[in-house]
Write a structure and sequence with these properties.
3 copies of one chain form a homotrimer. Chain A is built from 8 helices and no strands. In chain A, helix 1 crosses helix 5, helix 2 packs parallel to helix 5 and helix 5 packs antiparallel against helix 8. Chain A is globular. Chains in contact: A-B, A-C, B-C. At the A-B interface, helix 2 of A face helix 2, helix 6 and helix 7 of B.
Chain lengths: 199, 199, 199
């Protein structure tokens, strides 16, 4: 029953992919909320944070046009997330912790998705680990630079290390013949445990 | 007489394109002036601000090499603008308003040009609006980041919204069958009125 | 004996290329040291600073995937450099001058390599000078932005000018028929003398 397996794998990966976009978009919108921007500012920060890491990944790998140009649904997901956060921000805003936890989920999801796409495109485990790290960290870094906040890279917290752990765990499991969706789950868990534990 | 129409359209669009480069280059040079950089610093900020937005647009759409590599005249236009501003900066510098008005013209011109090129490349109105916004705002954002100034994104002014309005108005008119140069004029006017009104 | 010449040229250029990566990676690691980051932070800053300029160059020229995806050895060189600096930083850290001198060597090496690759890809001397400047300056600019330090662009020092001088000297010599390795040496010397003299 290979189809079942394929569907399960595909389902896990699609879930990871959209989870990454949605939680990063929400974290971006919360940053816009902290800066008291208008709704268009919310949508801009949602989109930049939501698709920023994957955009850099696609540029570096030469997968052009970038993924959200091929599938504009990603932009619509960011816009919908931004609108949702805009109208609930009075409820959410004081929970800065929420931004950090959403960011942790996005970091874990993207460290795996970035590594997977790097591996599919180049076949090189080294490049896969690098693209995993880049995809996972760049959305948050871009958000911090645009919001004129101290970069998350410089805080005394486990951030890049968590992305490295997630990407490396995924690549190692995959190289050992572990099924794709299980490798993805191990990578996600490794990154999330490290990052979440540091919050 | 389709040639007449084609010439008129082409003329309007070429005008918009060079207007965007020149005014953004001048705004970049004025930022260099405020930072008291030397002439090479002026040229660097002219070029980054003048072609930065269009460069990101081309990267994302996969139109490589980017436009100014194909047509180096754009770089020469930025250099000429930077030199002109360098030698007149003592006259212009105290007029910070001038930088903002130049930026408003560039924003309006690029919101239309970015949307047009996004539409031509992908056929998707959503992507056209996004590339219009990106092209219009990224030159100024890059300039602010490199000049270590608070990003224009965070000021309580209509900035991204004006870019969104210009790109959307252009895409909507174009979808309704309005002639290209008229759609471009409507988009330009929408963005410029909103941004100019906020100054 | 064209092979001898080819080997000599190739040797000089390979040397310049790796020299640029190693010294920029070391300068990036020293920046991480000043920010008291952990070892993964060192490696991240090593890699971003070491390959950042060349990455932007490849993106703009459409040479995709970028060079270090094709040859992951560049990433390993950055990682090795970052580890070396991490374990010797207690010895090196108080020598901020060292960072500046390493940066000057990298600037000189990359102004030539960036111009050479721009020339090979496009045939345009103007574009070659621009890609030389971009390649030479962007690693350091990225490092400063990510480390939340005032950009080297804004310091009252000869920086962009040195990159311009190196790229221009190389392109001019090459256009006059000067052998490649000699043109490269002249360009390197021009950039290094200007930048080093300003320290």
């Amino acid at each position: 029953m290979p189809n079942v397996s394929a569907n399960k794998e595909s389902g896990v990966l699609t879930l990871l992919d959209y989870a990454g976009v949605v939680v990063f978009a929400a974290a971006g919108a919360l940053a816009a909320s902290r800066k008291q921007l208008d709704i268009i500012g919310f949508l801009f920060f949602s989109a930049v944070t939501g698709v920023g890491g994957g955009t850099l990944r696609d540029l570096i790998l030469g997968r052009l046009p970038v993924f959200w140009v091929k599938e504009p649904i990603y932009i619509l997901v960011c816009v919908a997330t931004g609108i949702l956060v805009f109208f609930t921000a009075h409820f959410v805003e004081w929970r800065y912790k929420l931004l950090l936890w959403l960011d942790a989920i996005g970091l874990a999801a993207y460290s795996v998705m970035g590594a997977l796409i790097g591996l599919e495109t180049t076949g090189s485990p080294i490049i896969a680990i690098v693209t995993g790290m880049l995809t996972a960290t760049c959305g948050g870094v871009l958000r911090d630079i645009l919001a004129d906040e101290p970069s998350v890279l410089l805080r005394p917290e486990i951030y890049i290390t968590a992305a490295l752990a997630g990407a490396s765990a995924f690549v190692l499991c995959h190289a050992q013949g572990v099924p794709l969706y299980l490798s993805a789950a191990v990578g996600f868990a490794a990154a999330f445990a490290l990052r979440g534990g540091a919050l």
